[in-house]
Structure formats: C-alpha cells, structure tokens
Amino acid sequence: MHGQVCVTGVGTSVIGRDTGLSEGALALEACRAALNDAGLQASDIDGLSMYPFRNSPPTPFAGPSLDYVHRSLGMPTLRWAQATTGENAQLGAIVLAVNALYAGQCDHVLCFRAHRRQQRRFLPTTSDLTEVWDEDAWTMPYGVGGGAARGALWATRHMYKYGTTQAQMGSVCVNARAYAAHNPAAYWRTEISLDEYLDSRWVAAPLKLLDCDYPVDGATALIFSRRDVASTTRKAVYVESVGTGPGHSLSWSSWAEKSQMASRQAAATMWGRTKLQPSDVDVAQLYDGFSIFTLSWLEDLGFVPEGQGGRYFEDGGGRLDSRLPVNTDGGQLGMGRLHGFGKVAEAVRQLRSEAVTQVPGAEVAVASAGGGPSCACVLLTAAPVTS
Amino acid sequence: VNQALPRVMAVEPLRLEDDRYVAAPERLTGRSRPVATPETAAFWGGLRDGRLILQRCHACGRYTHPPVGGCQWCGGPTVPSEVPADATVNTFAICYLQFGEGLDTPYIGAIVNPLVEPELQIATNIVNCRISDVRCALPVSPAFVTDGELTLLFYTPAHENGDPT
C-alpha cells in the first residue's frame, strides 16, 4: 500500500456491559464520531464495509446490517460496499476497504464493527446448535467448537512446545489491566496483580476467566481514504502494509500445529511488502481475545523469537517503559471486547499522539486481529514512508 | 529485535491438581447432532459399527479427515477406508463451563492425532481417566458410545483399556 491509503477518521461508541442501545445505535454513534473526527460529511462517503456478514436469524453480536447504517446516516449512492466473513479475521472488512481504495473503486470507506455483548459468551454465535454442519459437526458434539475451549487448545500446545507458563499468560492480562486502569473509556478501571490472576477460576484450563476478553456493548468506526483525496481531511495516518493469509489451513480444529497461528503467514505477507522492519515499530496493538493469542502475535510479527512471547511479558515487556508497549488502551482484556477494530483505532490514536496513554513520539504502529487460522494485521505510519 | 537468543528454560507441562475421574457418558442426549452429508456418511456409519473410517487417497495413499471432496494432501480421489483408531493426544482443554450443548462439566475437550496419519486432527473428549492424567502426546484408545441415533468417538488413555503402552 505504501501510504496510498490513509486512515482519516476514527470513532468509538460508549462501551458497557448493558448499554440499553441496539447494535445499530452503537454503530451509528461510532460512525458519526468518525465522520466528525475526519471532518467529512456522510455525503463524502462512497464506500461502506463491515465485519461480519449478518446471518439470518441474526444475533446481537453480529451487529446491524449494512442497509441499516447506510439509510440511518442518510448516505447518497455508494460506489462500493461489502460485509465479510472471518477468513481475514475481523480486519477482513478493513483489508477489503484498503484494497478497494487502492484499486480506485471509491474514495472514502466507512468501516465499522458494532455489537451488543455476546450473551452466550462461551458458545459459537450460531443460534441453534441442535443440528450442526461443517466444522461444527466435528467439534460441537465434544464441546470444543468455540469460545475459550477452542482457545485453550492453542494455549495447551504453546505451553507444551515452548514451556510457556500460566504466569506468563497472566502477565499479558496484568499488562492490559494496568493500561485500562488509566483509560476512562475502558470497562475495567482497576489493575490486577499476578496473584489475583493466578487465584482466578478456570473456565477452560489452561485458560482462566481473566485470560478471556471482556464482552461489552460497543462499536468502532474507521474511515479509510485515498491519499490523493485525503487533503480535505485532517490528521491522516498512513497504511504502509497489510498482512493476510491463513497459511496451510482454514479450519480451527484441523490446524496441524496449534503452537502457531495464521499470524505467522499474515506477518510474513505484511513485512514482505514494506522496507520497514519489526525494530521500526514503536507500539503494537495485538489481538487479545484470549491472552495466548497475544503471545503468538508478538512472536510471529518478529518482535521476539519464536516461543518467547510469554517471557517478554513476564519480564515487564509491553509496559510503557518497555522496548515495545503493547495494547496501550487496555486491550480487549481491559477496555472491552471491541473485536479487532479497537486495535486499529488505538494504533491510529497513538500515531496522532492522541492516545490516553501515549507512547512518546510514536511513528510506526502495528495492529493485529484474530487467532488460529483467522488472522490479519496492518502496519500504520504517522507519515508516508519514502521509498 | 530478533537477534536475542532463546533462553534455555525448563518446560513446564500443564498439570492440573484436579484429580476427579471423568467417565464416558452413558447418554448423548442434548449434544449437538452432526448432520451427515454424502461425503461424511461413511465416517458416521463406521462409528455406529465401532469402526474408524477415513478417506484414503488413490494417488498418494494418505488419509484425509474430516472428509471433503478429495485428498487434502494432493487433491487426488479418495475412498472410505477402515483404519485402526488408536491415537495420541495433540492438545486438550479442561472445560469447567459448557462450551457445547448437553455436556456435563468438567469434561476434557481434546484433539487427537490418529497413528495412521499423525498430521490429522480429530476432535474428541478424553474419558475414563482422571483429569490430572491427561497430557500432550499421551497414547489413547477409542471408546465408542452410542445413544439412540447418535454414535460419538471418545478416547481413553491406552493403559485403561489394558494396553500399557
């Protein structure tokens, strides 16, 4: 991408356990905030992109329909719109928007992810689990088809292969909650100690309750624009490179070596298309739907050697005074589960020097989302990278 | 940042102090019911007969699972083929909440690798053992449970079946 596409607006809705707002109302709050932030009108937007695809019957966690948001904002004719499934994780909506802009399909794309708190937190979002098809047919009868049970399969393997410890996973949570305590927008406003983590209950060992991100009502919206029209907007942040690719499998259960995720392929794709290197990155927003995923992202993006993610956090890595601060808004473990889009929003705020807990002089940021076979990442810069 | 050498460390295997015994379920009532397709009918029919049937490739001889429309390794044509069901534990999760319908907690969710094709992953529950007995690479043997129309393939530590591997 090399800076041909920018982020020109960012907005976040209220975050809460039970806001009383519909998923559509949450989406509109975030979208209007992003438009206001960008200094753009709804009539300037000619592209609309959301994750996920809204199935029927819908669940509140799926978010509103594209049509709902389009008509609610009073937008004119769109030139491009899509709702994506999860093959590039939650960021699929952003990956496709960036590609559409790069290809000249449109000028400004409004991307959003909005949801009410997932009620059945630990089950797949399928509405009826009586009969199951496809991958669910192989996993749901055994209770390993989704949620923390699925995440735990990956954590067990990471511990087995690399010697990752419970305390090391817990250090990811302690780090997130320390940032969240300083973030007025975060759901959790209290720090936790490692002992509190270790004393918390199992949900699916080796995952404890605090290893799981916190489900909230909330929405994030981001506006991506072609650089050649972004002069009408303010505060642009540049998309240097995007990383995608599941690698060898599209399946959670069939993935052969669960000590690694598709983050390895996504990182290789992203780094393969930029001259920047991991050592250039000033701040990282790494997916923490489960703490174990943060360790894999940290490793696969090249910030630490393979298998050393746990050691990094255990030694104080990730904090503001460390060599790479991680999840500086409190992450999904502390701020609440904004499902990947919050990662990009915080990266943008860091590069604008507008973050609540600001990494001084941050110029290069990574945001990543997803786990298992469903991963994507984006490399953002405060200024275009000259070739 | 990649120059740092990995530290030498002691591997700390996941061990839970929970030594409760988890028996194979007698009833499968309430569990999600897999819908058989033309591709998967041989597998589900095999389970009813206490047999593990995987798809074997005519071209390369390797096995594919779950069954699809060809060989996952080379794209060649496959046919149903009975194989020994013995496996080893790839990874597991001790579930203290229900992550599926109709399961009693705690239960041991697991992925096992069949010995005949160790790169394949089969989702299951480890049963008839103590929670603290389960670990990665543990040899396990099949335990078929039928309840009405549904048969599921569970696994149990190999020595529990009189095979002190």
Biggest protein-protein contact in the assembly? A-B, 57 and 50 residues
- Total of helices of chain A: 12
The largest sheet of chain A, given as strand count, sense and whether it forms a barrel, is: 9 strands, mixed
The helix content of chain A is 25-40%
- Radius of gyration of chain B from the CA trace? 18 Å
Q: Please state the overall shape of chain B, judged from the principal axes of the Cα atoms.
A: globular
Unreliable spans of chain A are none
**Strands ordered across the widest β-sheet of chain A:** 3-2-4-8-1-9-12-11-10
What is the N-to-C succession of helices and strands of chain A?
A: EHEHEHEEHHHHEEEEHEHHHHEE
Structural class of chain A: alpha/beta
The rounded Rg of chain A comes to: 19 Å
Number of strands of chain B: 11
Describe the fold and architecture.
The complex is a heterodimer of chains A (387) and B (165). With 387 residues, chain A is an alpha/beta fold. In chain A, 30% of the residues lie in helices and 17% in strands. Chain A has helices at residues 23-38, 66-72, 92-102, 134-139, 147-162, 166-180, 194-199, 263-271, 291-300, 309-314, 331-334, 341-351, and strands at 5-12, 47-50, 80-83, 108-115, 131-132, 202-205, 207-208, 218-226, 237-243, 283-285, 364-371, 374-381. In chain A, the strands form 2 sheets. A 9-stranded mixed sheet of chain A has the order 3-2-4-8-1-9-12-11-10. In chain A, strand 6 and strand 7 (207-208) form a beta hairpin. The longest helix of chain A has 16 residues, at 23-38. Chain A is globular and about 50 Å long. Chain A starts with a strand and ends in a 6-residue tail after the last strand. The relative contact order of chain A is 0.19. The model of chain A has no long low-confidence stretch (mean pLDDT 94). With 165 residues, chain B is mainly beta. Helix content of chain B is 5%, strand content 35%. Chain B has one helix at residues 41-48; strands spanning 21-22, 33-34, 52-57, 63-64, 78-83, 87-95, 107-114, 122-125, 129-130, 139-147, 150-157. In chain B, the strands form 3 sheets. In chain B, strands 8-7-6-10-11 form a 5-stranded antiparallel sheet, covered by helices on one side. A 3-stranded antiparallel sheet of chain B has the order 4-3-5. Chain B has a two-stranded antiparallel ribbon with strand order 1-9. The longest helix of chain B is centred in the N-terminal third of the chain and has 8 residues, at 41-48. The radius of gyration of chain B is 18 Å and the shape is globular. Mean pLDDT of chain B is 89; it is low at 1-12. At the A-B interface, strand 5, helix 4, helix 5 and strand 6 of A face strand 2, strand 6, strand 7 and strand 8 of B.
